Amino acid sequence: MTASLERKTKETTITVSLGEAVAIDTGLPFFDHMLATFAKYAGLPLVLNARGDLRHHLMEDVALTVGAFVRRLTPATAARYGERTIPMDDALVQVVIDVGGRAYFEGKLASKLYTHWLRSFATASESTVHLRVLRGSDRHHIIEASFKALGLALRQALRDDGVVFSTKGSIEWKVTP
Question: 165 falls in which pLDDT band (50, 70, 90)?
Answer without folding.
Answer: low
